[in-house]
Amino acid sequence: MDQLRALKYFAAVAETGSFTKAAKQFDVPSSSLSRRVADLEKSLGASLLKRTTRSVQLTEIGRDYFSQVQDILQQLEQSNESVRSYHAKPMGLLRISAMVGIGERILLPLMEEFSALYPEIILDISLSDELSALGRDDVDIAIRGGYAPNERVLAIRLMDNDFIAVAAPAYLIEHGSPRHPKELREHKGLYFRTPNGPQTWYYQQDEQWHTAAVVPAAISNNGKWLAKKAANADGIMMAPRWMLADYLQRGELQELQLEPKLKVTQNRELAVYLLYQKQRYLVPKVKVAVDFIVARVKAKSSKSKIKGSDYLI
């Protein structure tokens, strides 16, 4: 039995719910495709499909098997593409996912130059604060702020992602400048909403982590809007230093001198990471994009005195 062909046939039937539709994809008789799938089931000693005169559905074990087969076939196709395109010219559709703030401020300004260098690459850029799984969501490259994820991917640390507490000078004149996180209970907080809910603010004292109690004045997943509210003296905000750089330079916001420092996570590896699957680096369009983004961001970070780092796996 040609198991690889049988796996492809089975996956097509599972996706379409029909032997006839699956057979059309491969331009083979449906009877031939059906026999191949039956041979696969016989070799496994399990029924993967429930067949009726009107429909074909996956059995419980069939669903589990299909999930695993999908991953195998996708990895195989990616490996085949990598080998086929090893000496090819960078071209084709390149899918990049980035967090909204990072995408707008860091990624998008770079991509005009990238498109001029590689005009045959079609950019498909998605900006979302929902995390993307590289394999599942069919993304070639992901850029995230946070810490290196527990995924089977390569993660390049592009730059630090230190969060700082800020407020408008007018707000501090009216409400006072807190010196200790405990004093924040008398202040208004502008909270960023993550996919897991409003961000929690922490501080560490006597080797113990504590939550800073701040009365919420506004909660949003739009960092720009929160920054504008902070500049309008509506409350205290926690955000990455790179995001607030223009506000700080213009004097519209100023960093709070809290001791101990306020944090948004207890993890010390907070940074901006570029992620990609190892085998995809052999594909020219992915390789040139990874190299370009890493070089440009690190050069810009160096000029801004933002410390970079090395490759992490």
Characterise this structure.
By secondary structure, this protein is an alpha/beta fold. The chain folds into three domains: 3-84, Orthogonal Bundle (Arc Repressor Mutant, subunit A), CATH 1.10.10.10; 92-161 and 270-312, D-Maltodextrin-Binding Protein, domain 2, CATH 3.40.190; 163-255, D-Maltodextrin-Binding Protein, domain 2 (3-Layer(aba) Sandwich), CATH 3.40.190. The chain is 40% helix and 24% strand. The chain has nine helices and 16 strands. The chain has helices spanning 3-16, 19-26, 30-44, 60-84, 100-117, 169-175, 223-231, 241-250, 284-303; strands at 49-51, 56-58, 92-98, 121-127, 141-146, 154-160, 163-167, 188-194, 197-198, 202-205, 208-211, 215-220, 236-240, 254-255, 271-276, 311-312. The strands form four sheets. Strands 4-3-5-15-6-16 form a six-stranded mixed β-sheet, with helices on one face. Strands 7, 8, 9, 12, 13 and 14 form a six-stranded mixed β-sheet that branches. A two-stranded antiparallel sheet has the order 1-2. Strand 3 (92-98), helix 5 (100-117) and strand 4 form a beta-alpha-beta unit. Helix 1 (3-16) crosses helix 2 (19-26) and helix 2 crosses helix 3 (30-44). The two termini are 38 Å apart. Mean pLDDT is 87; it is low at 306-313.
